[in-house]
Amino acid sequence: MAITSIVAAMAVPMTRNAIGDMRLRGDARSLNNAVSLTKMRAASDFTNARLYIALDSKSFHIERWQKTGPAWVTEGGTTLLAGDDTFGYGVVSAPPPNTQAAIGQAAQCRTAAGAAIGNTACVVFNSRGIPVDTTGAPTGAGALYLTDNTAVYAVTISASGLIKLWRTNPTPTPAWSLQ
């Protein structure tokens, strides 16, 4: 009975950590897939498409630019992050190599009139699947970060449209590894 209690006392925290890691990894892969789908949606519809991240509600969804209107139209459903996962990078102070000059979430989303929307981050792709900034110029500065304070994941988008998923432990000097 004592041996069973000792084994159970060791297994419960390890299981909790493993489940937390699987949740964060799953959220990171979902975000990476959503960025890829947004890029394909822009190219297939011959219009702009964006991945809209609601930082405060820990959710994201795809929007397509509707030329008649004009307005951003939501496509599909909204995905919520699991458990303790949040958009952010915690204490990590440097972005993955050859991605951004300084670590930071993608730029804020904008309304159809061009006004910034608070507590958001957007990755916008043009009709050729190239990430663009608010002026329509190609940009390689877009990145999205997820953390649960035990690991940090980054989805980076280069100016050519190459999408990469990265992981590091939360330390001020990260050791990013390509996933």
Quick structural gist:
This protein has 179 residues and is α+β, with helices and mostly antiparallel strands. The protein is 25% helix and 30% strand.
Q: Features of this protein?
A:
179 residues; alpha+beta; minor pseudopilin epsh fold; five-stranded antiparallel β-sheet; 25% helix
- Tell me the span between the first and last alpha carbons: 42 Å
Kindly report the name of the CATH homologous superfamily.
minor pseudopilin epsh domain
Nearest-integer average pLDDT: 91
Query: For this entry, what is the oligomeric state of its chains?
Result: single chain
Strand percentage lies at 25-35%
Low-confidence stretches: none
The number of helical elements comes to 1
Q: What is the count of β-strands? A: 10
CATH class wording: Alpha Beta
Annotated CATH architecture: 3-Layer(bab) Sandwich
Q: How many distinct domains?
A: 1
Instruction: State the secondary-structure class.
Output: alpha+beta
Could you please describe the fold and organization of this structure?
The structure is a single chain. This protein is of the alpha+beta class and 179 residues long. The chain has a single domain, classed as 3-Layer(bab) Sandwich (minor pseudopilin epsh fold). 25% of the residues lie in helices and 30% in strands. The chain has one helix spanning 2-45; strands at residues 49-54, 59-66, 71-80, 86-87, 120-125, 131-132, 142-147, 152-157, 163-168, 177-178. The strands form 2 sheets. Strands 3-2-1-5-6 form a 5-stranded antiparallel sheet, covered by helices on one side. The radius of gyration is 18 Å and the shape is elongated. The model has no long low-confidence stretch (mean pLDDT 91).
